[in-house]
Design a protein that fits this description.
Helix content is 52%, strand content 4%. Helix 6 packs antiparallel against helix 8. The protein binds iron/sulfur cluster (SF4) (2 copies).
Length: 692
């Protein structure tokens, strides 16, 4: 009779469970954007071992929550064996899962099970403390009924297993010495009970445990704890492409029924986006590290993911699933989407490899290509379209500083072939037009000359890489600029490029191959560091200052160039380098990326937040390796009235430490002339200037 009842319960529970799974799969595959993720099986398997089995990201940065989760995860793995044993006992009373191994194998198993269950109970208490008394800065978890139900169910599973095994100990069926915790329970609660009461107690806890397992299985798909079921495929099918690379829209092979671009409706997302949404545990680590959220903007990357899940759940069986628009005032608002700096801190922090930024950029693409981008960024895009740079300057004005420094310009006095040069220096629009950017470009040129590198720039033949256009959502304009640049580079037979702007670096390196480029791209920090290692640049002068390094998002987190800039600083005599608390993978954005430098930003601004951290760090100089960061910090310094901290590019510090002849060019005059033009953001003509 017991076996029949158990079978009925199991069949019923599994029936409901698979019905839920099927309806989830139906929703998941109604998201139609293609996403092929079955390549590179070895890398994916490694990811599964390190991040699921090893829980590496869970433990990173958040020790309390990490240890708590580690204990629950591994506890569950082991307890599952105990639960299997209990289920089989319904058919074979007295069944021992590891009895077939002989010796003390079964007893050892019971001992491990007993201790692990106690550890899981401790982890549950840690979970409650994490949601209640741990200081709020580290308490990002959402306190919901869902969390209470799940924690309660796990606690119930432990309690009922202890109850069952304690009853067996009291009955003399299970060995006391191998079940210390259950024995302790028996000595407190089951002392002096007669045999039939103990038998009833064992039966009661057994049924309760089985019912809880089956209820847990069926509650999971409705809960944020559905990640228990989805985490393995979600981590296995993670994005292995460079993080800074956006998908190309194939305008030449569009389907006939295309209504819009980007992600407007649910079907415009991919199956992996939906899997992401159902895998999110709402731990809030992404939001905790988001610069937009940290500066009181409406964007929370966690909410972006959960809104997609709520949208799918709310509309699962209705036509609204593929009719309603997600980017809208009802679901994900334009304010949220345009607040993103594309810094990728959220993606970096998510323990489950959810791509919050990718979803934001696809929805932003939809909005912009539907004409919903407003404000100063629109003017920037117009100038990119008309002049190939965000200010609308003439392309012939890209080179005056280079003439002063006698830097060869391809196609403009330096021949038509890059084959005569070791490398082409991609100055970017900041290096071409912005006064500070010109100073840095000029410094890099001097360093290259000093090291005997044969290089040229492309001058008027270079246009904006299109990074701001793509990140703001204007894909067609980006592709136009990308194709122009690739054609030019291929025409000049360019093989290797140095870029000092991390945004150019990322686009040239990761995105231009989709447009026919096979140029090798290195950042100036990598190139200069190699010149030092080769003995071609010798930092000898003692700079005697305290300094910190700010990791630009598109150099560091997006492209993993963390060590080279630090190695350059370490090679300079007299520099005392001190790391910021938020550094390397955990660096905090300057606020400029994702086209934000061209948009108005409400106070408090992201760059103020980062600059305050630098100022509080007590150093004399902050080194960056990005023209955007330099501009953002200079603005923040002005705003805060702090004129004590020097803001320098790594290349400038390196140059200061070399034993070079004094330079008396009229570069500074050029810079100040340009300053008047580019900094007057109040004039209509200069709406395309950085909005800092
Ligand atoms: S990419 Fe950066 S700004 Fe955008 S949501 Fe993620 S953390 Fe926030
Ligand atoms: S997206 Fe990732 S980091 Fe953000 S709340 Fe969900 S699980 Fe946590």
């Amino acid at each position: 009779m017991k076996a029949i009842l158990l079978t009925l319960l199991i069949v019923l529970a599994l029936g409901f469970f698979f019905r839920n799974v099927l309806s989830f799969l139906k929703v998941m595959f109604s998201a139609k954007k293609k996403s092929f993720r079955a390549d590179n099986i070895i890398e994916r398997t490694k990811g599964f071992i390190v991040y699921v089995i090893g829980q590496k990201r869970i433990l990173k940065n958040y020790t309390w929550a990490g240890v708590e989760h580690f204990m629950i995860f591994w506890g569950f793995m082991i307890i599952t064996f105990g639960s299997i044993e209990l289920i089989v006992m319904g058919y074979l009373p007295g069944f021992e899962l590891f009895g077939f191994l002989g010796g003390t194998a079964q007893e050892n198993f019971l001992l491990i099970l007993d201790i692990v269950q106690a550890l899981v109970v401790i982890a549950l208490v840690m979970g409650v403390l994490n949601r209640t008394v741990i200081p709020s800065g580290k308490r990002r978890e959402v306190n919901s009924i869902d969390a209470v139900v799940i924690l309660g169910m796990i606690f119930g599973l432990m309690l009922t297993d202890f109850g069952f095994r304690a009853s067996k100990v009291a009955m003399g069926i299970e060995p006391q010495s191998w079940l210390p915790i259950s024995s302790f329970w028996a000595s407190i609660f089951l002392n002096n009970l007669n045999a039939s009461t103990l038998a009833f107690s064992a039966e009661f806890f057994w049924w309760f445990h089985i019912a809880l397992i089956l209820a847990f299985l069926n509650y999971l798909p409705y809960s944020k704890h559905s990640h228990v079921l989805t985490v393995v495929p979600n981590v296995f099918f993670q994005n292995l492409e460079p993080r800074g690379k956006m998908n190309k829209i194939d305008f030449e092979n569009l389907p006939d029924d295309v209504e819009h671009f980007g992600a407007g409706k649910f079907e415009d997302f991919s199956w992996k986006d939906v899997l992401d949404a159902y895998t999110c545990t709402e731990c809030g680590r992404c939001t905790d590290n988001c610069p937009a959220w940290a500066t009181d903007k409406s964007l929370s990357p966690r909410d972006i993911v959960t809104k997609l899940r709520h949208f799918a759940t709310a509309n699962a069986n209705s036509e609204a699933l593929n009719e309603e628009y997600l980017p809208s005032e009802d679901w994900v608002t334009p304010d949220e989407l345009y607040a993103c700096t594309t810094c990728s801190a959220c993606v970096e922090q998510c323990p489950l490899f959810i791509d919050q930024m990718g979803k934001i950029l696809e929805m932003r693409r939809f909005l912009t290509m539907e004409g919903q981008l407003t404000g100063t960024a629109v003017r920037t895009l117009q100038k990119l379209g008309s002049h190939g740079n965000p200010w609308g300057f003439e392309s012939s004005d890209r080179t005056p500083w280079a003439k002063e420094k006698e830097v060869p310009v391809l196609g403009n006095g330096a021949g038509d072939s890059a084959e005569e040069f070791d490398v082409i220096f991609w100055t970017g629009c900041f290096g071409a037009y912005d006064p500070r950017g010109q100073e840095v470009a000029s410094t890099i040129s001097e360093l290259l000359k000093e090291a005997g590198v044969k290089f040229a720039i492309m001058g008027p033949n270079e246009t904006c890489t299109g990074d701001p256009a793509r990140r703001l959502g204007e894909e067609a304009l980006f592709q136009e600029l990308a194709m122009t640049n690739v054609e030019t580079m291929n025409g000049f037979k360019v093989k290797k490029v140095i870029a000092n702007c991390p945004h150019c670096f990322n686009t040239l390196k990761n995105e231009y191959p989709d447009f026919g480029s096979d140029v090798e791209v290195v950042s100036h920090t990598e190139f200069l560091n190699q010149l030092i290692k080769d003995g071609k640049l010798k930092p000898v002068k003692d700079l005697d200052e305290t300094i910190t390094y700010h990791d630009p998002c598109y150099l560091g987190r997006h492209n993993k160039v963390f060590d080279e800039p630090r190695e350059i600083l370490e090679s300079i005599p007299g520099l005392e380098v001190s790391e910021l608390e938020r550094s390397r993978e955990n660096s905090f954005c300057c606020g400029a990326g994702g086209g934000k430098i061209w948009m108005e930003e409400e106070a408090p601004r992201v760059n103020w937040n980062r600059f305050d951290e630098i100022a509080d760090h007590g150093v004399e100089t902050v080194a960056a390796a990005c023209p955007f960061c330099n501009v953002m910090f200079e603005d923040a310094a002005k705003y805060s009235g702090n004129d004590k901290i020097k803001i320098k590019d790594i290349a400038e510090l390196l140059k200061d430490s070399l034993d070079l002849p004094v330079n008396n060019s009229n570069f500074e005059k050029l810079a100040s002339d340009k300053d008047v033009e580019s900094k007057d953001s109040s004039s209509e003509e200069n709406e395309g200037s950085p909005q800092v």
